[in-house]
Amino acid sequence: MPRPRRRASFDDLAYPRYRSGVYYFLHSQGGNGTNNNLGNGTLRLSPFLVPTTVRIVRLCAEFTAAGEAASVLRIGIFNALPNGDPGTVALDAGTISTGTGDAGTVATGGTPGVYEITCDVTLPRGWYHAAGAVQGAPTTQPTIRTVAVAAMPDIIPWGATIPGANSVHVAYNQGSVPGAFSTFAFGSAQGTVVPRIHMKTA
User: Has residue 11 been placed in a domain?
Assistant: First the structure.
């Protein structure tokens, strides 16, 4: 007798499967812009959903104008806590040089463009946070390609006070992150813009 067909699960019906060897933006693709004032050593994160397990082999970002010689953009991914806040580091991919000194993991000579960092991490289905931080730029920050539109329903807490008129938050911020990423320390500062980050699947 023929074997009965497996009934499609909710996940099969509701969530697409990642294609192999394809680039995906982690944030919404709408509302992109640029920013040269993200803050030296300020970690900025925004939530995104991984609908099905995915293996990531490249993490990418863009700068459109160089900063000082030793400046870099560090990018990575954080795990989300049950309440939606960023938690531990899922991936610290390293840094893209954004200055002529080629201080980063990926050398660019200070030439603007989209650059990728080789990595290898498998993320199970769940919530994560795309993370970026300008570092090594106390005087002149690079101009980074950014997004200011939440990719998913906004789960970022505002704080204990009522939001001001026309206020928008799409990011978690954490200051004083001059080097490798570590477990996120939640504070009161949230932001309206984050570096735009994308990935390539295995």
Answer: no
Q: What range defines the domain where residue 121 resides?
A: 18-156+168-201
**Are 120 and 92 a contacting pair, CB within 8 Å?**
no
Examine residue 107 and state whether it is found in any structural domain, yes or no: yes
Nearest to 46 by CA among 125, 124, 146, 150: 150
Name 85's Cβ contacts closer than 8 Å, sequence gap at least 6.
157, 172, 184, 186
Q: Is residue 196 part of a domain?
A: yes
Q: Is residue 135 a part of any domain in this protein?
A: yes
CA gap 96, 150 in Å, rounded: 24
pLDDT tens over the chain, length 202 residues: 555 555 555 455 556 789 999 999 998 766 789 999 999 999 999 999 898 999 999 999 999 999 999 999 999 999 999 988 999 999 999 999 999 999 999 999 999 999 999 999 999 999 999 999 999 999 999 999 999 866 555 667 777 778 788 877 778 999 999 999 999 998 766 788 899 999 999 9
Angle, vertex CA 64, rays to CA 128 and CA 87, nearest 5: 15
Give 110's contacts (C-beta < 8 A, 6+ positions apart): 66, 69, 97, 98, 99, 100, 101
Query: How many folded domains does the chain comprise?
Result: 1
CATH of the domain at 110: 2.60.120
